[in-house]
Specification:
Helix 3 packs parallel to helix 4. The protein has 207 residues and is of the alpha/beta class. The mean pLDDT is 89. It is 26% helix and 25% strand. It is elongated.
Length: 207
């Protein structure tokens, strides 16, 4: 039986870089992989983008209403007319890699588990646990509940401690109000902080 893996970390912990490295490792050994990302992540449009500058087009994007297992089956078989690989003798998929998995719904994370267990294809999901108010994203919360394996990808705070939380900034101002999803870019950007620096920035508040 294949497994569902959740590899999580604060912003700038190298999640997308790690995903693209895993994809390279599979393909270097002649194995076929599929890359997916939620459509709500508009950074890079339909591409997975590492902060190191590495970029690769996702095989499919997931909208809020999509059934991920059905999308995976269509892409895997080559039956999807928009698939990058469309022929009947396509090799089996050795792994599904999902970037920004925190933006998936709980039901879509359930689909990832079904792909791993029922379709026997390993699923590597990458994402952050909590938003700028320290609240869990629905997708991340479900992954923490269901994943066979949890792995933290670490990065450091400006003070040198391990960063745990994601602080949202608009320009240079730290903000603690707003929608849960605001994609990095324009005036919005994020800084990864340790618990001490986060509490100093928030005046001791955690939500």
């Amino acid at each position: 039986m294949a497994k569902l893996y959740f590899r999580y970390g604060a912003m700038n912990s190298g999640k997308s870089t790690s995903l693209l490295q895993a994809a390279f490792n599979y393909e270097e050994r002649g194995q076929r992989i599929l890359l997916a990302k939620p459509g709500v992540d508009t950074k890079g449009e339909n591409s997975i983008v590492s902060r190191l500058g590495i970029k690769r087009i996702a095989d499919f994007t997931v909208s809020p209403e999509d059934n991920v297992r059905e999308q995976f089956a269509a892409q895997s078989s080559g039956d999807d007319p928009d698939a990058l690989l469309t022929h009947v003798d396509a090799p089996p998929v050795a792994c599904l890699l999902v970037d920004e998995a925190q933006f998936l719904s709980r039901e879509q994370v359930d689909d990832l588990l079904r792909i791993a267990v029922l379709d026997n294809v390993p699923v590597l999901a990458y994402g952050i646990r909590t938003d700028f108010r320290t609240h869990a994203f629905p997708g991340s919360a479900r992954l923490m509940e269901l994943a066979h394996s949890l792995e933290e990808l670490k990065t450091i705070c400006r003070c040198g401690r391990k960063a745990m939380f994601n602080t949202r900034r608009v320009g240079e101002a730290v903000v603690f109000d707003g929608d849960q999803v605001a994609i990095d870019g324009d005036d919005v950007w994020y800084e990864s902080l340790c618990a001490t620096c986060y509490l100093e920035a928030s005046g001791g508040k955690l939500s």
